[in-house]
Design brief:
nucleotide-binding; Kinase-like_dom_sf; ATP-binding; protein serine/threonine kinase activity; Protein_kinase_ATP_BS
């Protein structure tokens, strides 16, 4: 279920780049919080440019120790490599203020 082509070419936003790239959140309209976990919060957004619903998992990197920060960056890499119809699709990752944001497709109902 891994996309080995992506692995060979390099994963978008894997490694140090995930720490520095920022994105303008003005294109997103917050709808509601859908869940909270040990590292972050999953929030439902609507992209204004195409009206698509997406989940952005926001992880406050300042609240994590070094090991937890690395695990969060590893999550981006693993999500970007996964390619299966039963796995939520990774769309993008970026930094917003002190948060690592992981954008994924929205799966209504779960």
């Amino acid at each position: 279920y891994f996309d080995y082509k992506k692995l060979k070419e390099g994963v978008k936003m894997a490694g140090p780049a995930a720490k520095t790239r920022t994105k303008d959140m003005e294109n997103y309209e917050m709808i509601r919080t859908v869940g909270k976990g040990a590292f972050g919060t999953a929030i439902l957004y609507r992209r204004k440019d195409d009206d698509t619903l997406v989940i952005i998992k926001e992880i406050n990197m300042l609240e994590l120790n070094a090991s937890e920060r690395q695990m969060s960056l590893n999550e981006v890499t693993v999500l970007a490599l996964m390619d299966h119809p039963n796995i939520v699709k990774y769309l993008d990752s970026f930094e917003q203020d002190t948060k690592l944001c992981i954008e994924m497709e929205y799966a209504d109902g779960g």
